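Input sequence (414 aa), recorded before submission:
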Amino acid sequence: MKKKRLLTILLLLIPAFSLGYASSSWAEYSFTPNLVLREEYNDNIFLTRNNKEDDFISSITPSVKFSYKTSILTLSLDYGLHFRFFAHHPQRNETGLSKTQRAKLDTTLSPYKEIVFLKLFDEYTRVPVDQRNQVALDNIFVNLTDMNRLVINPYILYPVSSGFSTSVGYTYDNSWYRSHQGDNTENHTANLNLIKVLTDKITSTVTYSYLFHRPKITPKYDKQDVFLNLSYDVSAKLNLNGGAGRTWFNYMDRPSQNSSIWNAKASYHLTDLLSLGAGHTESFMDSVKQGTFKRRSTTGSIGYSGKLPVNLTVFSNIDTYDTVDRTDRSRGATLSTNMPITPKLTGGVTGTYSHFGFQPEGESMNRYSAAVSFAYAMKITTLSLGYTYNLNDSTNRSNNYDNNIVWLQAGFTI
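Predicted structure, token format:
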């Protein structure tokens, strides 16, 4: 119950404190309430191969977006409730506050001369438990768990001289999962950054951090990182960014280890409407239930923002887990577009493909998702309808499933 109450306390007390603190300053703010009513038919709600169960699902989603900005404060809040009602499986209804709320709070307070800062971030959302299990576009609850992540980050950013500054700070990062499989974790990190503007186009950053990683289930460890990063604005259209470093793990109950970490990224605006991006990253991440893993990730993207906006992203990942014998390989692509049909009518298409290889089991899997939707916008109302198709094709036939979803919704924004 402690974590369930935490978000509510933050949502009520932190904005109130911040607004009161900044009441004497100029302010820009916006407040946008929203209500979405949705009805859908899902022919395989549990994403199973055999004995499929279908249902009609009604959703009511009230929400509010709030932003507030002064000379010392920037605050944004997105809070909503998502009530769901199942016609044939009423035991699956989601009506209680603890199961329906979704929220994101992000605020930065600078009480002293843009030198002393306090960043607060809290998000309550629903996330996949394990990518090896059922994953589907518009999936409601299979292989998902509620997660609350709280980040508190006080830091000092001090300009030592022209073009040279340093920052020192502390970060408290708490992740909580509703599922018993979730590895609730507290992280405490101290960090030091040295930022140097080398030229009008090149900026360098040297970072040192010390992390106390304290999960509830997986092994505890301390970790140190040293990293050098360079950002180079080659021209108004091309930016190069990259860096390299080393990380050291000191486990409480197993031998210590160390590894290299690095990244390289490039972004290029070919025209005002067409942009390209590519990158490779090798870094460590935390999973929901099986601890820390090293991800080697390569990505590429093409974005077009003309009359027919199109975004294409391709990726290739290799995830190697530290404390269990597990390696996940994945590669794939996502293509999305929004098509203005008339001034009020817009059509949208999204397609995704992912190929997975899981070791040591040797399972190979292909996942396909496709969605099409149409939205008709009026003054305060938007009417939408859509169709989603999901297919999972695995060498382990028991993991195969397909899924069709048809939906209709009305959104109201004041």
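Checked by second reader. The chain is about 5% helix and 65% strand.
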